[in-house]
Amino acid sequence: MNRTACFFALLTLVLAGTSALSQTGSKPATPAESIRKQFASINQRILDMAKDFPEDKYNYKATPEVRSFGEVIVHIFSGNVYAAKAGRGEKASWDELDPKNYATKAATVQALEKSINDATATLKAEPNTRFAATLAPWLSVMEHSAEHYGQLVVYYRLNGLVPPASRPSK
After folding, report:
1. Tens digit of pLDDT for each residue in 74-115?
2. Nearest to 130, CA basis, from 141, 142, 119, 122
3. What is the set of domains in the chain, with CATH numbers?
4. Cis peptide before 137 (omega within 30 of 0)
C-alpha cells in the first residue's frame, strides 16, 4: 500500500471513530465513571439475585464443602463493608462477617442493601482525581463480587432456576 492509500485509510478510520463518538454524543468514560458504573452494575445484579432466590433455598450448597447461597451473599457484602471503610480512609481489614448473624433472607437482603448504599455513598464522595492514582479498594472488591456472582449463577442453574439477568426482557 502506498503512502497516499495509507493516509486515506487512516483518515477514514479516524473520521469513522470521530463520527461514532459524535453520534453518541459522549466521550470515553473516565476511570471514576467506569468504577462507579461497574460497582453499581455488579451490586445490582447480586441484589436482584438475593431478592429473587427462594428463601427455602438460601441454605443450598452445591457441595457440602462450599458456602450456602445466603453465606455467599454475606461474604460478598463483607467486601462492600470493607470498601466503604477503606474508601473513607478508616483502618479496614476484609473481616469476614458471620453469616449466623443473618439468619433469614430478609436480614441478609437488608444487610446487603445497606452495604451497597454505604459503599456507594463513599464511592460517590471520592474525588475523581483519586482514581488517576489508584483504583483500590474498588477494583478488587468488584472483581471479588463478580467471581461470586458467577458462583450464584451456578446455584441458580443447579436448582433449575434462571438468574434474573439471564431472563428475557419484557
Report:
1. 999 999 999 999 999 999 988 889 999 999 999 999 999 999
2. 122
3. 30-166 (1.20.120.450)
4. yes
